[in-house]
Design a protein that fits this description.
Length: 322
């Protein structure tokens, strides 16, 4: 018979069709995130799960899904998934790295450029009919400035190319120095030095126990008062209240965020009222081409796992199928 699969939310039609061709699909189609209770009966029979980043795939969910053999998620991040619990159950988990690198780099660098040059504020100014009045507050140059990247992976390397094309110097901090960093064109430095010397900081590190709350009051206090802080990773890498305070006190100049904590950010959230912030609704990978590639790669991984074959982009390779 057909494989039984749960899809936890919206999926691009081409990927959905590929899965439906081989599987009996239960798909969550209502707005919002399904609870474990709402998925309960479906999970009981599920052999495959197409997860989404806003769903907690934890021990509780796994316990409710005794037949589960594979999990695939159309995202590079998988901080919502308890990987150890999956590995303990010998369930391979697939993410979708690679296919979203250039797209996410465009958004991260686009946030930097938009904030630096106040492009969004200029447009709002024109729409409000303020053009004839006094000029907009001035922006800042990119050329000759230092960009500090925290978490230099594939996306950071793609951001580095964009920054260097704009005449920026790029420094970075990772847990360990990359052996290929001279090829990438980024210079390794310690976290403290990166905070103190960067004109722009872009955060691209995955959310882990170590990176959760990495940017708090102390870190913002160490940055230049002219610093621009850009987060395109995960909201919880930043202590939101500390960022709010730093922006109000002008400890840093500006923030541009594609990810927030909480996410989504309620319209009443105080961060939204600040004059020195730009926020986008987690759209790092949100292009037609890339979302389609992500969905198809997730579907491919799901089907491979159901067939007992090795997943192509597996997070816990120690339990990947041989
Ligand atoms: C999006 O944030 C992703 O992890 O792909
Ligand atoms: C994405 O694939 C990254 O590792 O940055």
């Amino acid at each position: 018979g057909k494989y039984k699969v749960v899809i936890a939310g919206h999926l691009m039609p081409s990927a959905l069709a590929a899965i439906q061709a081989q599987c009996e699909v239960r798909q969550w189609e209502q707005p919002g995130v399904p609870t474990l209770n709402q998925l309960g009966e479906w999970l009981q029979a599920a052999e495959g799960l197409l997860a989404l980043p806003n769903i907690a795939v934890n021990a509780g969910l796994l316990a409710a899904a005794p037949k589960l053999r594979v999990i695939a998620q159309p995202a590079v991040g998988y901080d919502n998934i308890d990987i150890q619990a999956c590995t303990d159950r010998k369930i391979p988990v697939a993410n979708t790295p690679g296919v979203l690198v250039e797209t996410t780099a465009d958004l991260a660098f686009g946030l930097l450029l938009t904030a630096a040059r106040r492009i969004h504020e200029g447009w709002a100014w024109v729409q409000a009919g303020k053009w004839p009045e006094a000029a907009l507050p001035l922006g800042v140059d990119l050329y000759g400035k230092t960009l500090g990247i925290v978490g230099l992976g594939a996306i950071g390397a793609a951001v580095t190319r964009r920054a260097r094309a704009s005449g920026m110097k790029v420094i970075y901090n990772n847990r360990r120095q990359r052996s290929d960093d001279d090829l990438i064109g980024a210079e390794y430095c310690c976290f403290e030095e990166l905070l103190a010397t960067s004109d722009f900081i872009i955060v691209l590190t995955p959310l882990t126990l170590e990176s959760r709350g990495l940017f708090a009051a102390n870190e913002f206090a160490r940055m230049k008062p002219t610093a621009y802080f850009i987060n395109a990773a995960r909201g919880a890498v930043v202590n939101t209240e500390a960022l709010y305070n730093a922006l109000v006190a002008r400890q840093i100049a500006y923030a541009a965020l594609d990810v927030t904590d909480p996410e989504p950010l309620p319209a009443s959230h105080p961060l939204i009222k600040l004059p020195n912030i730009l926020i986008t609704p987690h759209i790092g990978s949100a292009t037609r081409e890339t979302r389609s590639r992500m969905a198809l790669l997730a579907a491919e991984n799901l089907l491979l796992g159901l067939a007992g074959k090795p997943l192509v982009t597996c997070v816990n390779n120690e339990v990947n199928y041989q």
